[in-house]
């Protein structure tokens, strides 16, 4: 047959991938033909489809999104997403799941009949004469300048290239592999097909009007060797997936197919398995409209193309359906294929006529390069979720569902769900409709996110460095307890707890602070003044991070422990420890940044009353020794006092705000407050306060030291004995305590400095800032240590960081990709 004179795409398969691709090609006036094996474009095969934000964004670009929304009318599709145990009891719940997703990504979650999505896609096509039914592909031949496709009815079609969008049992993949083995032996792995695994069988189907079913719920149910995903749909429908682990993993040709008799056995075996506390699998199945039992292949093929043939969708990458990403991934692959096609068109002066095999290979290679890693991620994530729900590793699943997930806030659950969405593709040559969203997709970020392997390396460097600092504290913290006890007995006159061990211990702590303040050498007092003033930022930041929505249920959400640890173990240990924990646990989405405004409003009065005033009084000269020692004793509790006051003040403000509203209404408001940024100005005022106080104290102390003839700035801050020396031979208690505080400050600054630099890297790693911004911020942090002090620098950095993260929330889409480095 003669080669095609004009560019034409032959699409095998009129499913979601094929119809989506046809719609996209029409948008750019590119010729195509769809060859569909069935006699109807939207056959009632009884399957459902879940559409998530990553797929919906592309469908929105081609004009299909509103039709999907219209299926649900004015109602919200899903009110609750519930995780349940094998008895149907609730483990955790996310209320308002649809609204959350829509506010976060601009698009919600829709479960409905696959047939209806096919009809929507078909209705959107203008050239319906290019959609041919009862055209089952049976043969493929490569010809000069094109590809020749034969159908079961004997008809033939010639095009520039062939796209196999014909599912996991792809005839196009089979023909492509055969051609590869014939013309280029070794191109395809000869045993790859035999290594495709199947771990689970799945009963799926559609039921309607199930007694006891709560409309608007999505239920994910755990079990021993089984799991379930059961979701509400429009018109009282219920879509179910019952997954059961095979007795042994099957591969390739050994993967079974199931008869209706085997489906009946499956249903009988699982009939009484609970979905909720009121509904069983059997009750749903009894109300079925349609049902199927099928094996679940899980695969991403190594090579998706050969010569002028490429496979997309399930024929190239097939995940477990528990993640709901099969159709969405297929849509993404279609988008990336057309992106690569149009880039090639641009490079050829706007023409696709006469594409060579090298041109085609370039297009296909770019398509697979853009999608392969992400397809592997989706298949891997879906498999991991299925393994957890089905208790493949019982101990791990038990820990997650009995201990971890019940403690997690809904922000963590939503982030885990959404981590798959944000890396989704979009059509580069079509605008993204303007839809408000709090979390941008990766291609809408200021910069391209950094490779995960590089990110892990940088984090390991931080952890190693902070680990060295923690180890150094074991050598540098040498408190002379016996000398302190004698000093306390001789000079401390207060007795808060009468004559008891508690009083003795408190008085010893009083001596730790009192001795350097009363030292005749002014450098010790000056160093302590500078050091303690810079602790405002650690206290504030630990508290702020503890109240962020994204840190709920993590160790970072316990700021009082870090505050208490500053006194019990020293900030020199808490700073590197907090930096390590933050590198693993810090929220990654803009919505995790949010803090209740009532908490923020409590911070300045709490830090002023709880820490600043006691610190000022400690350094304020007083002839009343007992009164002064009482202030020194109060200071020992200042960090914890600040945490308590912040908590008390914030609760009072929240009660004042919500006191006249019903509890449900206040919870509803708080649930969606995270998508607003009205806490940002308040937070910036806190950072400004902290910066001003700490910078003033730092600059004033350095200026005083500069002009004082008996003080050396170098010796005051850096005059330290050898850390590894066995005996420092210090002459007095004053000297020993001065060295202790110098090392405590040194280790604290190292921990804060390392954490600050990593927080900048974290923004760059996630694509939230550009490289130039990161470098400037890092240099500012270095300079700030000397100019305004570590605490003021931290406050300034967090002021800048807060604005950067908040600015990521967008009023709508962005048609430009993340091209900046």
Folded structure, characterized:
The protein is an alpha/beta fold. The protein has two domains: 9-444, FAD/NAD(P)-binding domain (3-Layer(bba) Sandwich), CATH 3.50.50; 464-662 and 681-806, no CATH class. Helix content is 52%, strand content 13%. The chain has 28 helices and 20 strands. A seven-stranded mixed β-sheet has the order 5-4-13-14-15-12-16, with helices on both faces. The chain has a six-stranded mixed β-sheet with strand order 7-2-1-11-19-18, with helices on both faces. A three-stranded antiparallel β-sheet has the order 8-9-10. Strand 4 (80-84) and strand 5 form a beta hairpin. The longest helix has 33 residues, at 357-389.
Describe the SSE topology.
Elements: E1 9-12, H1 16-27, E2 32-35, E3 48-51, H2 53-61, H3 65-70, E4 80-84, E5 90-95, H4 97-105, E6 110-113, H5 114-124, E7 131-132, E8 137-143, E9 146-151, E10 156-159, E11 161-164, H6 171-183, E12 197-208, E13 217-221, E14 226-232, E15 237-251, H7 260-270, H8 281-286, E16 288-297, E17 299-300, E18 305-306, E19 309-311, E20 317-318, H9 326-347, H10 357-389, H11 394-407, H12 410-418, H13 452-476, H14 481-491, H15 501-518, H16 522-533, H17 536-547, H18 559-568, H19 571-585, H20 597-619, H21 625-636, H22 638-658, H23 663-673, H24 680-707, H25 713-718, H26 733-765, H27 771-787, H28 790-806
Parallel strand pairs: 1-2, 1-11, 2-7, 4-13, 11-19
Antiparallel strand pairs: 3-6, 4-5, 8-9, 9-10, 12-15, 12-16, 13-14, 14-15, 17-20, 18-19
Helix pairs in contact: 1-5, 1-9, 2-9, 9-10, 13-19, 13-26, 14-15, 15-21, 16-24, 16-26, 17-18, 17-20, 17-28, 18-19, 18-22, 19-26, 20-21, 20-22, 20-24, 24-28, 26-27, 26-28, 27-28
